[in-house]
């Protein structure tokens, strides 16, 4: 029997990665097609900077989870 927590975690990670790929590839691709290379680079920069708070929050939650697992 499978471990459902691992399966759920794996599915969530795949959904997040897929969503980010769609936003970056489709979003920046459309910007490139409509406005050109300079705007696409600018859009990629803005998307990258916008991900920084998300990454910091995810890292903090991962560290908290790690600490709590170590205490058990």
Topology:
Layout: H1 4-35, H2 37-71
Helix pairs in contact: 1-2
What is the tally of beta strands? Answer: 0
Q: Count helical runs.
A: 2
Identify the overall geometry: elongated
Low-confidence stretches: none
Q: What is the CA–CA distance across the termini?
A: 25 Å
Question: Can you summarize this structure?
Answer:
This protein is an all-alpha fold and 72 residues long. It has 2 helices and no strands.
Task: Please provide a written account of the structure.
The protein is mostly helical and 72 residues long. The protein has 2 helices and no strands. It is elongated and about 55 Å long. The two termini are 25 Å apart.
Core attributes:
72 residues, mainly alpha
């Amino acid at each position: 029997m499978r471990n459902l927590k691992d399966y759920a975690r794996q599915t969530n990670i795949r959904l997040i990665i897929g969503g980010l790929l769609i936003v970056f590839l489709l979003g920046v691709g459309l910007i490139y097609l409509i406005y050109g290379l300079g705007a696409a680079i600018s859009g990629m920069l803005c998307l990258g900077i916008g991900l920084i708070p998300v990454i910091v929050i995810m890292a903090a939650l991962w560290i908290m989870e790690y600490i709590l697992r170590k205490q058990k």
